[in-house]
Design a protein that fits this description.
Order of helices and strands: EHHHEHHEHHHEHHHEEHEEEHEHEEEH
Strand content: 15-25%
Largest sheet: 8 strands, parallel, barrel
CATH topology: TIM Barrel
CATH architecture: Alpha-Beta Barrel
Helix content: 25-40%
Mean pLDDT: 96
Distance between the termini: 28 Å
CATH superfamily: Glycosidases
Number of domains: 1
Number of strands: 13
């Protein structure tokens, strides 16, 4: 199969776009991320107003609907819901409720992400995930979201990329980066995040049984170089497979894939310095998606998969279409081989703040950072056209 059509994927397949809250909303002043990026000695570019998604979300919903997408993933900021310890902002709860209601009214199925790398500053400053009551505090935040979740949300993602959360201390102190593979996460933090997910999933199922509950794991396509086949499992297990295994019993597991890593003897990454790279410095590997999904399906065969992120940071929209074509064809091949995949969400609907940098442009839609004007790229209509249209 070399062509993509609305019939390439099965009926009922979810076609969505993804957005991160802090990266797009702007003005998230009560969060730990805002605090870090505004320190005088910070090396990060400021998120600031981001792309003003907090106010312009109706435009963004319209872009997704008009292009033909069926699903819409966006984030909720705990720091807006609970900007001070014990204070629940009814206005913020109502804000996110209105987004869900508007998405449903437009025919979009909302997927909400509860934790996407950022936390309330009061929580982080008092110990963060190291607090003895950290899980209870997160559950209290979930309880406060009842009006949002009951407004028509279809899915909830408890944690975005827990394996990246578990390596964040290494990333922040400069001991590692993500250009040559994911570092081995801290085992204790990994175990805690699994417990946090299970507790959150249990609370959500008890109070909101209609919701599909899962989380989104960063899954690379790990490829053994000759002679290192026995090292692949040892490399992959702490980096993503322990988190995939924790999805057993969930309604879905999100697979988030952009690239791959070659694994050599000794279970170490062996980067190819000659390979073409994207604006994030990641190796250009469109078919990594199929390989990552196939491995995830082997690790947790009983849990349906949704591709909750896939995309490319590029200034060339033709390359974006080329990359996404290769990714989707590899995804379809993995499905033909038996992977139970229920949907595909592209990262991202909009250009946004990529965790300290504005240069990597992932968006199907360009955004002018001075005026916040949204300009659809050709890739938006191209990708949206792959979603089957309802019968007239």
């Amino acid at each position: 199969m070399t062509d993509l059509t609305p019939h390439t994927f099965p009926a009922g397949f979810a076609w969505g776009v993804s957005l991160g809250a802090h990266q797009t909303e702007g003005g998230n002043v009560a969060s730990d991320a805002w605090f870090r990026e505004n320190q005088p000695d910070s090396s990060l570019e400021r998120c600031g107003d981001a792309v003003d998604g907090y106010h312009r979300w109706p435009e963004d919903l319209a872009l997704a609907v008009d292009a033909g997408f069926t699903d819409y993933r966006f984030g909720i900021e705990w720091s807006r819901i609970e900007p001070a310890d014990g204070f629940i902002s009814r206005a913020a709860v109502d804000h996110y409720r209105r987004i869900v209601e508007a998405a449903v009214a437009r025919g979009l199925q909302p997927t909400v992400t509860l934790y996407h790398f950022t936390l309330p500053l009061w929580f982080t400053a008092s110990g963060g995930w190291g607090r003895p009551d950290a899980i209870d505090r997160f559950l209290r935040y979930i309880d406060a979201l009842a009006p949002v979740l009951e407004a028509g949300a279809a899915r909830v993602m408890t944690i975005n990329e827990p394996n990246i959360v578990a390596v964040t201390p290494l990333l922040r102190n400069g001991a590692a980066d993500l250009q040559d593979g994911i570092p081995a996460p801290d085992p204790g933090l990994s175990a805690f995040l699994v417990d946090l997910h299970h507790a959150a999933a249990s609370r959500l199922r008890a109070h909101h049984p209609h919701l599909a509950v899962g989380w989104g794991v960063s899954v690379q396509d790990y490829r053994a170089i000759p002679g290192a086949e026995d090292d692949l499992e040892r490399y992959a297990e702490p980096r993503d497979q322990v988190f995939l295994r924790a999805s057993a019993g969930d309604d879905y597991v999100g697979v988030q894939t952009y690239t791959g890593t070659r694994v050599g003897p000794g279970a170490v990454a062996v980067p190819d310095r000659t390979a073409p790279r994207t604006l994030t410095g990641w190796e250009y590997l469109p078919d990594a998606l199929g390989g990552a999904v196939a491995r995830a399906a082997r690790v947790v065969p009983s849990t349906p998969i949704i591709v909750t992120e896939n995309g490319i940071a590029t200034a060339d929209d033709a390359q974006r279409i080329e990359y996404t074509t290769g990714a989707l064809l590899s995804l379809r091949a993995a499905m033909v081989d038996g992977a139970d995949v229920r949907g595909y969400f592209h990262w991202s609907l909009l250009d946004n703040w990529e965790w300290g940098h504005w240069a990597p442009t992932f968006g199907l839609v360009a955004v002018d950072r001075e005026t916040f004007a949204r300009t659809p790229r050709p890739s938006l209509a191209w990708l949206g056209a792959l979603a089957p249209r309802p019968a007239a």
